[in-house]
């Protein structure tokens, strides 16, 4: 993608309205937290203290809107404490640039490294940098700095108390994650009706698994309905694939295929009903006729062999899913059974035990090629440079430039540029509207305080509809807050617009000077996915060769590792398609073909998993040799892909040939089908990545020409990539 087209996509993304469910009650509660601290501070103390309190309550409230599985009151308290600490420490060093700039650089670098813990930690840490830049201008002594820090922390406490007293959709995020996973499996069942080889995106299941990890205190109140359905969805998934496959399950045409389609459609309806029940906390409402469709009649059932086994297993699992989802009507009152922690839930460390986790996560990212490390370096450089430049300009409130930079910067190119566009557009509109109201109403601190609270409520309400639209009311909130403090709008509003533009430009320029492009990393991400898929398929084969509990546990671990590698590839691939960088190592077409091949490899392993014997059941020892050959070959092929060499599957082909000769007629049809798909997937992968450097350069040039021609024709759309 060229820079001009990349900019068009950035502007479109930054100004796009995202269709998402609004949460006005949550916004109202959080805005009430801001009002609770602004009112008394304005009435009893001074506008300066009210501004500090508003900053703490607003930032702590905004942190609770981030997607996190921890209790939101804990997030609010943590954000308030971080804001208070940054304010006080910043004031101690704020007397001279020679002391403040190094502190700002170190603090911004640490905030950037917080992305190693996830987006929530990174966003909350960025707000502490903004707090340091703004509130150090308010106190006049160390004692006053402590008072302002305490008032800011009080804003976080106010938000936490409101969350405790007025819970809204407790466990709502966890319910949504689990419901989304079930709905994704339901969608997969429907797509299998039309396309038996349809791919499945495991991200919803990965998200639900992440949400299932809770702290010991959360485990005591977690609703029972959040326990079992995710595991059922995991078990239903390969059964659906096996039923739909024309070689393992129902034939491609005829009564058996019609029966398979009926079962798939009914399974989708049942899973959707379970998802709605879990999401809303209401009893399950199964569509009429589902029970009849799921009845496997011993005498009249048309399905036979492995297809019949898959159908029977599917019916059992769906009945279990409905039984568990039925507890969704209990709302959130029923506690989790007591007992040893590890026996009932995946453990998430408490806030007080996070230090070793933080240290390990940050240490993994302390390398030059890490996107998180490069983001931290950019953040530190831009924050200090922006503050230094703004301090030399003939304007007041120079901190708006570095704040704009810090709040829009993200570890990847597209989001950084899109947020810069959105912030400037939102700031321009919000400042214009708020300025008109300030001029019309005249100076009145109490009126401006009320308008600030209304702006906060609207900003929170539109928080997930697009950054530009929430930023519009955030900008209005700041104008009203400054008006409440007695600042003349002529001295603040034009300056803020100019400084916001300066901050956004610095953030964009920083990514050009010190980028973290994903495009060159695509071969490595693909190699990681290939190696992980090889280990997963080999683990499935070993479970067939010797179905012990240890091998079944290994298979589960390999599956999770494969999904993580696939998610890392997909994230990198999506980012690479938005970058103005020429393809290196893999063109988009090659990447798409390689992705299709590895999805086929996933499907082969999943089909074989659907008929893995239970522990201590009859084994298939001939599968062990193929497992060893496959794992070794995919590990070597991963190295070859990284180094742009053609993979060699001779060892796998030899194992397959030997197995066919030794066990012809004995191998079960599921393993036979899985081996065929494995062989085909590996051949397709070789075709997609096997070309000389000259051929790859020619392919890249042709692809760029094709994209430019499409743009010239006026379609303006990105080339479609399946799964992208």
Written overview of the protein:
It is a single chain. By secondary structure, this protein is an all-alpha fold. Helix 4 runs parallel beside helix 6, helix 4 runs antiparallel to helix 7 and helix 12 runs parallel beside helix 14. It folds into three domains: 297 residues, no CATH class; 160 residues, no CATH class; 194 residues, Up-down Bundle (Methane Monooxygenase Hydroxylase, Chain G, domain 1), CATH 1.20.58. The C terminus is likely disordered. The protein has a two-stranded parallel ribbon with strand order 1-2. The longest helix has 29 residues. The radius of gyration is 29 Å and the shape is globular.
Poorly predicted runs: 328-343, 692-704, 706-724
| CA-based gyration radius | 29 Å
Domains (count):
3
Q: How is the largest sheet built, in terms of strand order? A: 1-2
Strand content: under 5%
Helix content: over 70%
Count of helical stretches: 29
**Mean of pLDDT:** 83
Per DSSP E runs of 2 or more residues, the count of β-strands stands at 2
The termini sit apart by 15 Å
Structural class comes to mainly alpha
Shape field: globular
Q: What's the main sheet like?
A: 2 strands, parallel
């Amino acid at each position: 993608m060229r820079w001009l087209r990349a900019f068009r996509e950035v502007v479109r993304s930054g100004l796009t309205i995202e269709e998402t469910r609004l949460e006005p009650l949550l916004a109202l509660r959080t805005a009430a937290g801001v009002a609770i601290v602004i009112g008394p501070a304005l009435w009893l103390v001074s506008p300066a203290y009210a501004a500090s309190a508003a900053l703490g309550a607003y930032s702590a409230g905004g942190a609770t809107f981030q997607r996190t599985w921890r209790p939101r009151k804990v997030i609010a308290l943590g954000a308030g404490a971080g804001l208070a600490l940054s304010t006080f420490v910043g004031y101690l060093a704020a007397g001279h640039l020679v002391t403040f700039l190094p502190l700002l650089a170190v603090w911004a670098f640490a905030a950037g490294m917080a992305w190693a813990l996830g987006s929530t930690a990174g966003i909350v840490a960025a707000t502490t940098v903004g707090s340091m830049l703004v509130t150090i201008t308010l106190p006049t002594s160390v004692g006053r700095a402590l008072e302002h820090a305490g008032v800011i922390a009080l804003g976080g406490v106010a938000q936490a108390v409101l969350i405790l007293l007025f819970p809204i959709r407790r466990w709502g995020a966890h319910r949504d994650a689990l419901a989304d996973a079930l709905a994704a499996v339901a969608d997969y069942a429907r797509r299998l009706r039309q396309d038996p080889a349809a791919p499945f995106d495991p991200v919803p299941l990965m998200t639900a698994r992440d949400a299932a990890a809770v702290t010991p205190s959360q485990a005591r109140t977690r609703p029972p309905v959040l326990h079992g359905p995710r595991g059922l969805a995991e078990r239903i998934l390969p059964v659906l694939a096996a039923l739909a496959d024309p070689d393992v399950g129902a034939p491609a045409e005829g009564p058996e295929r019609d029966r398979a389609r009926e079962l798939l459609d009914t399974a989708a309806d049942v899973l959707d009903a379970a998802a709605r029940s879990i999401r809303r906390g209401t009893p399950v409402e199964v569509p009429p006729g589902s029970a009849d469709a799921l009845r496997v009649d011993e005498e009249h059932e048309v399905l036979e062999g492995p297809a019949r086994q898959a159908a029977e297993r599917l019916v059992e699992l769906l009945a279990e899913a409905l039984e568990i989802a039925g507890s969704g009507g209990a709302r959130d009152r029923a506690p989790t059974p007591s007992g040893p922690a590890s026996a009932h839930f995946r453990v998430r460390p408490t806030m007080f035990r996070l230090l070793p986790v933080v240290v390990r996560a940050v240490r993994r990212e302390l390398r030059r090629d890490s996107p998180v490390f490069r983001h931290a370096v950019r953040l530190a450089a831009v924050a200090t440079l922006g503050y230094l430049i703004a301090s030399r300009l003939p304007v007041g409130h120079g901190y708006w430039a570095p704040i704009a930079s810090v709040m829009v910067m993200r570890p990847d190119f597209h989001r950084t540029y899109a947020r810069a566009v959105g912030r400037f557009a939102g700031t321009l509109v919000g400042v214009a509207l708020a300025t008109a109201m300030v001029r019309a109403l005249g100076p009145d601190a109490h009126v401006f305080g009320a308008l600030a609270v209304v702006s906060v409520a609207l900003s929170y309400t539109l928080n997930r509809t697009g950054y530009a639209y929430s930023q519009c009311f955030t900008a209005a909130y700041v104008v009203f807050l400054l008006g409440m403090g007695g600042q003349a709008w002529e001295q603040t509003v034009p300056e803020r617009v100019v400084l916001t533009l300066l901050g956004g430009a610095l953030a964009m320029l920083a990514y050009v000077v010190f980028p973290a492009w994903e495009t060159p990393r695509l071969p490595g991400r693909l190699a990681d996915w290939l190696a992980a898929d090889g280990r997963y398929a080999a683990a499935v084969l070993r479970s067939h060769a010797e179905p012990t509990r240890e091998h079944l546990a290994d298979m589960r671990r390999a599956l999770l590792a494969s999904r993580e590698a696939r998610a890392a590839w997909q994230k990198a691939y999506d980012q690479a398609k938005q970058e103005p960088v020429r393809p290196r190592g893999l063109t988009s077409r090659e990447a798409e073909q390689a992705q299709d091949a590895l999805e086929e490899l996933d499907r082969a392993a999943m089909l074989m998993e659907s008929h893995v014997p239970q522990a201590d059941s009859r084994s298939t020892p001939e599968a062990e040799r193929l497992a060893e050959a496959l794992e070794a070959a995919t590990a070597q092929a991963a190295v070859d892909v990284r180094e742009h060499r053609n993979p060699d599957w001779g060892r796998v082909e030899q194992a397959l040939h030997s197995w066919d000769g030794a066990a012809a007629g004995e191998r079960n049809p599921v393993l036979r089908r899985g081996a065929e798909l494995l062989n085909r997937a590996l051949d397709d992968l070789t075709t997609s990545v096997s070309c000389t450097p000259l051929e790859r350069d020619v392919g890249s040039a042709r692809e760029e020409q094709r994209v430019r021609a499409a743009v010239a024709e006026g379609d303006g759309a990105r080339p479609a990539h399946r799964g992208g």
